[in-house]
Model the fold of this input.
Amino acid sequence: MWGIILAAGRGSRMGELTQQCHKSSLKFRGQSLMDWQLKALKQGGVSQIAIVTGYMEQQVSRLEYRSYFNSEWQDTNMLYSLIHAKDILVSHQCIISYSDIIYHPSVVSKLLTTDGDFCVAYDENWEKIWSARFDNIYDDAEQLLIVNGQITKIGSRLKLGDPNCGQYMGLIKTKPTFWRWFFESYQDHNKLKSRDMTSFISYLISVHAISVVGTACDEEWFEFDQPSDFTVANNLLSDKYFN
Done:
């Protein structure tokens, strides 16, 4: 089982914090965000890891892990970064992780045991985190709907009164069968440069009727998107794992 960490972007919303430091190198409770990810992936059942780099490549890549460099990181999005690891995607089951999140290893374990070619982890109890991060949760929250275990909608801005089942966590499990179909169907990769991950998942569901399985999680995790998130995370996360 492979893990792929997407770490090509700069994380500009972190402001001065990422001018001289890659976002995944920022520290939470003494460890970098990437160190937390590597630890969780390994403890959750991943045996091999690759990192897709871009901004501050030398700070992010590590000799012990396979590395892919997105030279167009400034002008492309996550999907384009991910397909740099095509050789892994078409040959192995993979856990795909954003580089600005931390999570308990059991989230990875749950994804590994979820049956499906394309599985997405989501937080059922998302409001606790979003209420602590934002004065108005609807400034950032996105809608995610589940019907019979399948995600039917993802990525649109959540509005007051909208039905919602959770928040996408930035963790995905895929099987080679999906990626073989994908690369046969989309041979012109230039068309994928601006596609972010949630719009990609939404496109798979709405246009291709791809089955995207939702993996409900209630374990501790956190997304770091702005400087204040470090303080919020320190107040919210227990020290049972994140110590």
Observations:
- The mean pLDDT is 96.
